[in-house]
Amino acid sequence: MFSKKIFNRSKPFIFLLILLPSILWIYQFVTGNLGVNPIERLMDEFGLMALRLIILTLIISSIAHIKAFKSITTFRRMIGLFAFYYVSLHFSTYVFLDHFLDLQFIIKDIIKRPFITLGFISFLLLIPLAVTSTNSMVKKLGFNLWKKLHYLIYPAAILSSMHFYMLVRANKSEPAIYMGIIILLLLYRVFKKITPRPLAR
Amino acid sequence: MKILSSEITPYKTYLNRRKFIKGSLASALLATVSSSAFANHDNNTLIYNKYLSEKDKLNSYEEITTYNNFYEFGTHKKHPHLNSGNFNPNPWSIKIDGLVAKPQTFDLEKILSNVTIEDRIYRLRCVEAWSMVIPWQGFQLSELIKMAEPLSSAKYIQFVTVFRPEEMPGQNKRTIIWPYREGLRMDEAMNPLTILATGLYGHDMPNQNGAPIRLVVPWKYGFKSIKSIVEIRFLDKQPETSWETLAPWEYGFYANVNPGVDHPRWSQSTERRIGEFKRRETLMFNGYEEEVAHLYKDLDLKKFY
After folding, report:
1. What is this model's ipTM?
2. What are φ and ψ of residue B229, in 5° steps?
3. Closest in A100, A112, A166 to B278, CB measured
4. What is the set of domains in chain B, with CATH numbers?
5. Which distant-in-sequence residues (6+ apart) come within 8 Å of A6 by Cβ?
6. How far apart are the first and last CA of chain B?
7. pTM of the model as a whole
């Protein structure tokens, strides 16, 4: 139904679609059009985009279980790498713009503030996933080990949504919704794993 | 009551106009331009600049009115500006009750005719670690307290914000327990720095900033400066306050600006002054140490944050 061809053809389009917001925000930031508190805004936009993309990769993994949508996994690597791209922008904004490379303060902040600790751990967890995203790395590690390694996306997703949840002062509904989606997707994967598959196809 | 950007007085012209008003035409002009914010306008520029340091630059009208917290209109800092159009602050009255000689309700006009409106430029430090410099117009809270005639047993004051969910969309959501409540100890309330503000930049208080009358306590985190006040209660016990009720481990009754006592989730040692690129150091009592430190000389500020 949805052939790999269709998905492959739409890839460049989706690539631009996900890249574009970052260019727009950076452009608005440089030209002074990102509101009254531009550094905060930039950090929030990058972070939120990263979390949404992480969740998107999880949704893709689950949808791929449906036969007709199997080929959708062709997007997953690209979106996953974009999630890492936005997380990196988010972290760089924090380090360079928000705290002006004040390493002493930043290290203390990461250790002392639980919500920053969680966000930072999540960032660290995403690094091996980004590094091992190439075909040659999949071969090198062997598919099974590679697959196990990439389950790290679940703790990373949970930690990022908690990072967001803990940051918000009173209206916690948006981060709570993201957390709920992640937990549902995780439960779905676990359920799929423990229910025996029919042998004959 | 939307203010067109063309009507907004830039800081310089604002100061010049004030000098002009000070001249021989003063009384004639005052009669024509006077709005409630300018009623009995004080023309002493000394008061105007008294609390401003050289390093402080005034924030623009746009910054002050498009970026702030007022959860009654939504939890995002652009929401007050976007969602406060239907709020109607006229007419307005304030109910005075609790430990007073005679509980009564004052019309705002009556209050304004009894007080002297003056200019006060204050730093405002939000608990979220951003800050601004704002030119308020208002009068000392102590003047209203005198009008209210509290009993000697009154040791604390509680303030209550208006509850109008049909005009304040944020009140339809249970983000905090409505109506918003705040409080001060009596000596904090009587301190000359503490004002009830009725305007900023020479305009009536914009809806999003707490029209028509709000508290400004410049040495405390912004959330103490309660907006759109409809009730003032005099009490003998420390009153409940909204943020303390919601998360007592994060927000205390005192909420004095203190770089040495962090919010559990983030540092309070630095702040981003809106309009500036690099963070600046947060000052003890937001830089008003000289005026207010004596109020807390017997208080453990780490415990009573």
Report:
1. 0.85
2. -80, 130
3. A100
4. 37-296 (3.90.420.10)
5. A71
6. 38
7. 0.85
